[in-house]
Specification:
The complex is a heterodimer of chains A (290) and B (161).
Chain A (H helix, E strand, L loop, with lengths): L3 H4 L3 H5 L26 H10 L3 E7 L3 E6 L5 E9 L7 E8 L3 E2 L3 H11 L4 E5 L8 E9 L6 H21 L14 E9 L2 E9 L8 H9 L2 E6 L5 E8 L1 E11 L2 E11 L6 E14 L2
Chain B lengths: L3 E5 L3 H12 L3 E2 L4 H10 L7 E7 L4 E6 L5 E10 L2 E11 L7 H10 L5 E5 L2 E9 L4 E2 H19 L4
Antiparallel strand pairs in B: 1-3, 2-9, 3-4, 4-5, 5-6, 6-8, 7-8
Classes of the chains: A alpha+beta (290), B alpha+beta (161).
């Protein structure tokens, strides 16, 4: 559900108020945060992930143990054990972090090679698609656990990896999954104009907010009160709202710390059935933390 | 290639003398030349015969490690302040045997899940990786990264992935 401060964007025009965005409670963990990890240990990794607001979705053990996880921003990753010392694929002395969705690109090999030549933190592999389809590349990060690693070290690696993924995916023209808008949480200064005027509003986007598609984030920015739902789409969508906007069409794009949007909307003019259609356009840029 | 503007040669003998004075630590929360030298030469997987401390033109420290087989691994301090650096960057450049397809060698190497990434660097092949120090790095853990760099660089130099 949209945070109150975001939902109040248009309402605040008249009220002039700004609500506070609260953070959700940290997930309870059965395993205490370890002080040192020296091999792949699912319980310990789950505890570290939970402490940073990441969620383990599933686990398994094929050739090696692995965890499917969602980051706090809503991006999917897989953490798997590697350099496993025994035949049962246990006692893995390193972990590999990968983005879970296939990143298909006609120039997958070139992207992977350039990334390996320029990057110190990330490395990448590429593979041809079976049947001659589009090749894909996989950015990854290996963390050696042997010798002992602090949870803070693992967290730093996960956060750094995600910061690169957030830049990399739109940078090569690919889309984030619907579970992530591509925006960085924080305080945004939004300006929106219609045929009858313009206004500005500071809006707090929490980590929960940015897990919506960017079209929904933008739709909610245009609407006061109860929020909007949007149809599936990558650049534009129809929106159905409760509150000031009844329905409309919106297009939006953005990356990392800013977004732009425009569209038209049928608005409730008087709470008595009056309707008018307006054109709107706006933008928002991150100005800092909430 | 980085340009070295000053040099502080740390001979093995001097280093060992300092280490034996009882100042050795087993953990560092920032990149330090001392930790890299200590681990490279006296750690459990020490594979280097020399560790030379230098400085880049920008003042960042770098330790140049050389294995008995002649593999050179440079460990750069990155994002530095006067009290230390937030990150270590490791780089090794080798010359595979003539006739070896560099690109194919690099691609096959990168298919394996390893910490460092390889790339074709002219007629040579380079291996690089980054180690952030947030949360600290133990000597025992750093030793794994150094040994891994030396091991894989040696294999690439031999044309093996």
């Amino acid at each position: 559900m949209r945070r109150p401060v975001l939902a109040a964007a248009v309402v605040a025009l008249t009220l002039g108020g700004a609500a506070q965005a609260g953070g959700g409670p940290a997930a309870a963990t059965a395993t205490p945060i370890p002080t040192n990890l020296a091999r792949y240990d699912e319980a310990q990794l789950r505890a570290v992930l939970a402490d940073m607001g990441w969620k383990a979705e599933f686990s398994g053990n094929g050739k090696a143990p692995y965890l499917g996880v969602w980051s706090k921003l809503g991006l999917p990753y897989q953490i798997s054990g590697i350099q496993c010392a025994d035949a049962a694929a246990q006692n893995c002395e390193a972990i590999r972090l990968r983005y879970r969705n296939a990143l298909q690109h006609a120039d997958a090999a070139g992207i992977a090679r350039r990334l390996n030549a320029k990057q110190y933190f990330l490395r990448a592999t590429f593979s041809a698609a079976p049947g001659g389809g589009t090749a894909s590349f996989e950015p990854e990060r290996v963390i050696v656990l042997k010798g002992g690693v602090s949870p803070a070290q693992i967290k730093a690696n996960l956060a750094e990896f995600e910061s690169w993924i957030v830049q990399l995916i739109p940078g090569i023209g690919l889309a984030f999954p619907a579970s992530y808008s591509g925006l960085t949480p924080g305080l945004y200064s939004m300006t929106m104009s219609t045929g009858s005027g313009s206004f500005s509003q500071n809006i707090c986007l929490t980590p929960s907010d940015v897990r919506d598609p960017i079209l929904k984030v933008a739709a909610d920015m245009t609407n006061g009160g109860s929020g909007c739902s949007v149809s599936n789409g990558t650049g534009s969508a129809t929106m159905q709202c409760t509150g000031r906007i009844v329905e409309g069409n919106i297009s939006a794009s953005g990356m990392s710390t800013s977004l732009r949007f425009s569209g038209n909307a049928l608005i409730d003019t008087d709470n008595m059935g009056g309707r008018a259609r307006i054109q709107f356009q706006g933008s928002a840029s991150r100005t800092g933390d909430c | 290639m980085p340009r070295f503007v000053s040099r502080a040669l740390i001979g093995t003998g001097l280093f060992l003398a300092l280490a034996s004075a009882g100042q050795a630590q087993s953990f560092a929360d920032r990149f330090t030349v001392d930790q890299v030298r200590r681990v490279a030469q006296t750690g459990p997987t020490a594979t280097f015969k020399s560790a030379e401390a230098l400085r880049l033109a920008n003042g960042n420290p770098v330790v140049v490690l050389i294995t008995p087989g002649g593999i050179v691994v440079s460990v750069f301090g990155w994002t530095c302040t006067p009290t230390g650096c937030d990150e270590a960057r490791l780089l090794a450049t080798v010359s595979p045997p003539k006739g070896i397809d560099r690109q194919q060698l690099v691609d096959r190497f990168n298919e394996q899940p390893r910490w460092a990434g390889a790339y074709v660097d002219g007629d040579k092949v380079s291996l690089r990786g980054s180690l952030p120090y947030a949360g600290g790095i133990s000597d025992a853990n750093l030793a794994q990264y150094l040994a891994s760099m030396a091991h894989h660089a040696a294999r690439l130099a031999a044309g093996q992935f």
